[in-house]
Amino acid sequence: QSSFDRPFPFRAIVDGDFLPQSPIAAIRDGASADVPLLIGTNRDESILFRDRNLVGQPIAQKELANLDADIARPVFEKYKQAYPELSAEALRVRFLTAAEYWKSSMDIAKARAEKARAPTFIYRFDQEAEKGPFSGWAPHASELGYVWNKLDHPMARLFGTEKSADNMKLSSMMHRYWAAFIKDGKLDDSWPAFEASGAVMHFDKQSAMNILNSSELALWNK
Q: 37-42 and 120-125: which strand pairing?
């Protein structure tokens, strides 16, 4: 780790033998096309790993596991232009969340949309922590207490989750969806598959079905 310039040094290597091609290339070629997929991200994934001392500075390589900083920095400039209303910290969190989690997940979803014979369901978890160090954010792993209907679990408490009526309602909804998907690989009509509609379920106190944010994805073109 000390000699590696980015997070998570233990990673898969495309060697042409054990791993013959990158996962996204395999998906584009039709791998997993018959396997239903439920995939998504939390709105503020990267807030859990941020270095607050870097806010206001150029994007650093140690913040990026999968991209070269020289490639990422011009995209970050596009984010500044696209979201001038965001604070410096919120802008950095949004960009790093996209760079490390959201864009790759959406690339997978879009690649499957072209090849898949089984459905893909996409979500984004927007529910904010109500207290503690992540108050006002929806960080990495904060959805787990809701998904497994365990709002009193120590991990849920770590993310400032209250066992309120609203939260219990959201937890019940998410748990029902995940259990149905695990059982049958299907969901009811309230959550349409991505392929046909571009649908993304946003989970929050007022959960709603939205369409994939193509304008943000376009910031990564070229």
A: parallel
- The owner of tokens 């939205």 is 210
Whether the CB-CB separation of 157 and 196 falls below 8 Å is answered with no
- Pairing relation of β-strands 120-125 and 199-203? parallel
Query: Helix, strand, coil % (nearest 5) of the chain?
Result: 45, 10, 45
Instruction: Supply the angle between the helices 88-97 and 69-82 in degrees, to the nearest 10.
Output: 130
CA–CA dist 213, 200 (Å, integer): 9
DSSP letter at 195 equals H
The 3-state DSSP class for residue 128 equals coil
Sheet hosting strand 120-125, strand order edge to edge: 37-42, 120-125, 199-203, 208-211
Amino acid, res. 111 = A
Q: What is the pLDDT of residues 134-154, one digit of tens each?
A: 999 999 999 999 999 999 999
In sequence order, which ranges of the chain are alpha helices (DSSP H)? 23-28, 69-82, 88-97, 103-115, 144-147, 154-158, 165-184, 194-197, 214-218
- For residue 152, the tally of other CB atoms under 10 A from its CB is 9
Question: Do 45 and 102 contact (CB within 8 A), yes or no?
Answer: yes
Pull the structure tokens for residue 116.
């898949």
Q: Do 54 and 60 touch, CB atoms closer than 8 A? A: yes
The structure's pTM equals 0.93
